[in-house]
Each structure stands twice: as structure tokens, then as C-alpha cells.
Protein: Calcium sensor EFh
Organism: Streptomyces cinereoruber
Amino acid sequence: MASGFQRDKLTGMFRAFDADDNGYLDRSDFQALAERWRALPRVRPGSELAARVDAVMLGWWDLLATHVDADGDGRVDLDEILAMVDLLPTMREVVAATAETVFDAVDENGDGRISPVEHRRLVDTWHGASVDVAGVFDRLDRDGDGYLDRPEFTELWIQFWISDDPAEPGNHLCGPVPTRT
């Protein structure tokens, strides 16, 4: 069962994914998410990367529909998303494969590293809007070299989706975690 911290973290992502703001996620929300990712400069129409982006985003919808759409209505609410938290540790390879595709999409210049500007683009693309990420990149860049390489990013990505420890930097990969007031 999702902790309060995981609920806070995933509530923000749920809102970002709910493209039509109807309180549910469905296939069309994941199609809209894929469309946002296809707008990145490196994800050219018809490219192999564009096909991977579509496969990853819609693949996550398929996993949600299969594993947590309890009533089979083709819609997933926040509580159903939170039920997925228990399954994610058993899906580590799928989560890591998603990180690979996201990394490739965001690494705009193809240098094998994500810069602070590219990280901002990742956060804004996930959220579909500009998000204040002041101080977040410094927290993520644990070796202090000014970039996230592929292994660093993959570890952070896995932490974001699986971790319940607010101290792990990956929990802030997609922006600051909102807290209850």
C-alpha cells in the first residue's frame, strides 16, 4: 500500500497525466502524454525513438488497465494508480526500460548526458506545464559534474517510481514533491 509520501508524489503525476482533467486516467490521457513527448526535438515523426515513446507511454496504460483497473471500466483513478505502487518493485526491468527511452528523448544533443536544461525539459514535458525546479538538479547530480549520465538517470528514475524514502534524490526527478498542508 502506498505511503503518504508516495501518495503525495504520485498525486502530482496523476494530475499531470490527466490531460482532460476528469479525475481519471484512460488510454486517451496516455496518448496525450505520448504526444507531449513526441514534441521534443529528438523525437522526430516516424523515427525509431518516436515509436519507442509511443510504445512506452501506451504500454504503461496497458499495464495499468491490466493490473489495477479493478472494475474494468477503462478508467483508472488515483486509488487504482496507488495500488500499482505495490507492483512496481516487481517490474524493475520495465521501469528501467522506460528510463532508457525517456533518457534518449530528453538528451537533445545526443551526448549521452542530461544537462540541467534538458532535465527542465523532462519535468515540463511530464507535467505539460512549466514547473519550478529550483535546486532539484543539484540534488540529483550527486557526483557534481553538472550532468546526469545514463546509469545515474536510470537509478534516479527507478527511485522516483519505486522509492518510499523522501531522502532518496530520485524522488525529486520529476520536480519537487508536493507536501500536504
Observations:
- The mean pLDDT is 93.
- The radius of gyration is 15 Å.
- The CA atoms of residues 53 and 102 lie 8 Å apart.
- Helices lie at 4-17, 27-38, 48-67, 78-84, 92-106, 116-127, 136-140, 150-162.
